[in-house]
Design a protein that fits this description.
Radius of gyration: 21 Å
CATH class of the largest domain: Alpha Beta
Largest sheet: 3 strands, parallel
Oligomer: single chain
Strand content: 5-15%
Structural class: mainly alpha
Bound molecules: tryptophan
CATH architecture of the largest domain: 3-Layer(aba) Sandwich
Helix content: 40-55%
CATH superfamily of the largest domain: HUPs
Number of strands: 5
Distance between the termini: 29 Å
């Protein structure tokens, strides 16, 4: 595949700029999907949930179907940024691959791989670390928040430097597009800095990749707070219909029996309406109007029914995949062989540009 360095898009100065730029990018993708290569990834810390599905997974699948080349990283080394030991790693890795495939990622054209299985990718971290200052790393607001939320007694070097590792994740395959949530924008700036500085200092090897924000509205957890595996407020893609009903049945609502969609004024109720609407592929206002004065009980019945109906085929595919662990391992082995060939070629180019080869 020919990777052309697209003319650099203007640096996103704030949320609105990032949004505008993402809309521009969508137009360029529609016009010429073959000129884009996406790298995206997740940490294997537990099952993916509906927030992941509507926030990023659906977007990945859409872009892949549109003809964009897709690289999906299982970021296993990154699990260690905020904990001492990565527990049940093998199990989480397999579950993550099953979730992706069940959601529609096509492994015959996508490259799915783990950090730890692609040594040459990790080696890029060393020259890349030389391109950023400690002060730049220390200013990253997402890392600052994660340090504040971490249960570790001390901040590890990996926590502080993982955005540079992320630059290696993206640049090893010369991806030029990274679909991200807002929290990842500071990391994306570090990747762009690393690419620019390497290109200036040594040789123009890397595209300066753009961040692509998802257009989907943000889903909250069933308690009205940020959806998160560890808070028990998220519907896992792999959950059973009964588990789903129990979780949504416990969701926080309010005392106004008239159901409406007003995300600012009534965040919890509106979030449930949004969830049903996303699953039904309809407008949230219309869904709320139908429930009318039925109150929280009627709302929850609709949400449970919509989620279970929507996830039914995905869950069936996922159950088949989970039963075939040999196949999941084969998908990874295949992706990892491809990723390794690409990473080794890039590392050779990097070492040559740095006059490290004799
Ligand atoms: N930090 C991302 C997350 O927590 C996962 C990730 C690792 C990633 N490397 C990446 C995302 C490279 C995009 C590009 O969700």
């Amino acid at each position: 595949m020919e990777i052309t360095t697209p003319e650099p898009a203007p640096v996103a100065a704030g949320p609105d700029a990032a949004e505008r730029q993402s809309r521009d990018l969508e137009e360029r993708i529609a016009a010429d999907p073959g000129s884009f290569r996406i790298l995206t990834g997740d940490r294997p810390t537990g099952p993916l949930h509906l927030g992941h599905y509507f926030g990023t997974l659906a977007n990945r699948v859409r872009l892949q179907r549109a003809g964009v080349a897709l690289f999906v990283l299982v970021a296993d080394y990154q699990v260690l940024t905020d904990r001492d030991v990565a527990d049940r790693l093998g199990e989480h890795v397999e579950a993550l691959v099953a979730d992706q495939l069940a959601a529609g990622v096509d492994p015959s054209t996508a490259t799915i791989f783990r950090h730890s299985a692609v040594p040459a990718l990790n080696q890029l971290m060393l020259p890349f670390l030389s391109l950023v200052s400690i002060a730049e790393l220390g200013r990253n607001p997402t890392v600052k928040e994660e340090i504040a939320a971490s249960r570790q007694a001390a901040v590890s070097g990996l926590m502080f430097t993982y955005p540079v590792h992320q630059a290696a994740d993206i640049l090893f395959c010369k991806a030029n597009l990274v679909p991200v949530g807002r929290d990842q924008l500071p990391h994306q700036e570090i990747t762009r800095t690393v690419a620019r500085r390497f290109n200036e200092r040594y040789a123009p090897l890397f595209p300066v990749p753009d961040a692509l924000l998802s257009a989907a509205p943000l889903l909250l957890g069933t308690d009205g707070r940020k959806m998160s595996k560890s808070r028990g407020n998220a519907v896992a893609l792999s959950a059973t219909a009964d588990e789903t009903a129990r979780l949504i049945g416990r969701a926080v609502t309010d005392t106004d029996r008239n159901i409406g969609y007003a995300p600012e004024a009534r965040p919890e109720v509106s979030n449930l309406v949004l969830l049903a609407a996303l699953c039904q592929g309809r407008d949230p206002r219309e869904v709320a109007g139908e429930i009318g004065s039925g109150g929280a009980a009627a709302l929850k019945r609709v949400v449970i029914e919509s989620v279970n109906e929507f996830l039914r085929p995905l869950r069936a595919r996922r159950a088949d995949l989970a039963a075939d662990r040999a196949y999941l391992r084969e998908v990874l082995a295949d992706g990892e062989a491809r990723a390794t060939a690409i990473a080794e070629a890039t590392l050779t180019e990097v070492r040559t540009a740095m006059s490290m080869t004799l």
